[in-house]
């Protein structure tokens, strides 16, 4: 569990620099240059992510159960992941109404993802992982909205339809195949 927590500190820490130390970040960018900053940021984030994945895998080998979630919460998680995937896609499709209205759909996707997975998982390692991401996403969203408030309205209809369709396709792929392949836990019955 220590490795996962260390990974969370590194990964979420580097992703929190804009929340807690924006002037320091700007000074480093001025000093190093934007590309060097992005390179260093990416390397540190990748190290943190590797530690999170490795440490999380270790927590699954000898799980500490805090509670046993009822089956109904697993179904609720499946439903909540639909808007989470659509919001995730909305962060990348230019001109969609979700991004125009919400401003930071990636952070909203992380919030929904973390909350949904907290409902369906009762192991201590799961709880630590998903609470860490949920708290970070809440704080990051608040900071991002202060920095760059959502424009509200706007967005093209076609881009929004593409966003929703791609989000649903991603949801289907992840629930049907990728979750079992990447995480080792099948989501759909019979998968």
Automatic annotation (TrEMBL):
Membrane-spanning parts: 40-57, 78-98, 127-145, 157-182
UniProt keyword terms in alphabetical order: Membrane, Transmembrane, Transmembrane helix
Domain NnrU span(s) in chain numbering: 3-186
Classification lineage: Bacteria, Pseudomonadati, Pseudomonadota, Gammaproteobacteria, Oceanospirillales
Protein's name in the database: Membrane protein
InterPro entries with a match to the protein in the record: NnrU_dom
Keyword Nucleotide-binding: no
Signal sequence region: none
Source species: Alloalcanivorax profundimaris
Location in or out of the cell: Membrane
Protein's membrane topology: Multi-pass membrane protein
């Amino acid at each position: 569990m220590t490795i996962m927590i260390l990974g969370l500190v590194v990964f979420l820490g580097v992703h929190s620099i804009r929340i807690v130390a924006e002037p320091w970040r700007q000074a480093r960018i001025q000093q190093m240059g934007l590309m060097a900053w992005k390179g260093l940021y990416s390397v540190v984030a990748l190290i943190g992510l590797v530690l999170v994945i490795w440490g999380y895998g270790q927590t699954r080998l000898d799980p500490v159960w805090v509670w046993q979630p009822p089956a109904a919460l697993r179904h609720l998680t499946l439903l909540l992941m639909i808007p989470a995937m659509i919001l995730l896609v909305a962060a990348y499709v230019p001109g969609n109404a979700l991004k125009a209205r919400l401003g930071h759909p990636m952070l909203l996707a992380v919030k929904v993802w973390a909350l949904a997975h907290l409902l369906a998982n009762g192991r201590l390692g799961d709880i630590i992982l998903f609470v860490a991401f949920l708290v970070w996403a809440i704080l990051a969203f608040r900071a991002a909205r202060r920095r760059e408030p959502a424009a509200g309205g706007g967005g093209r209809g076609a881009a929004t339809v593409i966003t929703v369709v791609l989000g649903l396709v991603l949801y289907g792929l992840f629930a049907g195949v990728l979750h079992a392949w990447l995480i080792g836990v099948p989501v759909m019955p019979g998968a």
